[in-house]
Known about the structure:
The chain is an alpha+beta fold. Helices cover 42% and strands 20% of the residues. The protein folds into 2 domains: 3-63 and 92-116; 132-285, Cupredoxins -  blue copper proteins (Immunoglobulin-like). The chain is built from 6 helices and 12 strands. The mean pLDDT is 90. Copper (II) ion binds next to loops.
Amino acid sequence: MKPRTIVLIGTSAIALAAIGWVTGQAAYSWLPPQASAESKLIDNLFSAMVGIGTFILLGVFLALAYSVLFFRAGRYDYTDGPAMEGNLSVEIIWTVIPFILAMGIAIYSYFIYEQMSIVGPMEHVHGSAKTAEQDPGVIQVVARQWSWEFYYPRSGVTSTELHLPNNQRAKLVLRSEDVLHGFYVPAFRIKQDIIPGRAIDFQFTPVQEGRYRLRDSQYSGTYFAAMQTDVVVESPESYRQWLEEGAKRTAKPAYNQAFEEYNRSSGSALHAGWKTVIPANPPIVNYSFTPDK
Length: 293
Ligand SMILES: [Cu+2]
């Protein structure tokens, strides 16, 4: 290879690496606030992958542009290009580099997976979940078509809004009474599918006080989009007060968008007569989530 080509490739690689790094840094701002310890880890991985992706994308575009600009056929040249049967060094390069990149991303992801101390699939469903069920400090979560219910065993409080103390490990046991649902909080960058008939142990650490949206990440039927609520992360002191206050409140049926919409629509004259899943009755709780907070 001519020294000029080597210099050209070298400088463009450095320039692309710089652009990749800058884009990777910018990627942090594309995501919701980092409200959990897990979100910081995930964002680092996301940023690294955006940076590598940018480097590869621009590298390919640059190679294409360079070839089109400097190696295109003359105006009236309709001959075929030289037949190329393969080039071992080029093939080794374009095999080894992606291999190293893929291995690097895989190892880094596993490293983050470990740091998030996600429990393994079998332990997840059988081992610790059993113990978590008996632990009064663990919040019991029940998903139904189409509502979330949270039960705090130690205080006996029930709510359709999830409250958590800041900077403390949140321990939940997730259950579904009907179909697959997904416990998904974008601000925490965590998602856990909930399987009917299984108690799934789930943990994470909120690190920023605030109100964040919990959505159902599974298509669990007609009103799955209405299966949303808020996660409120507050100081341990106001969390304690919230529980204390809750234990004194009379439990009553919670606000439930799916239930309301279904009853409103089933009253209307326009009825296609299609069979549909009737929403579960709103849970009877001390605290009810309302969307306008
Ligand atoms: Cu659902």
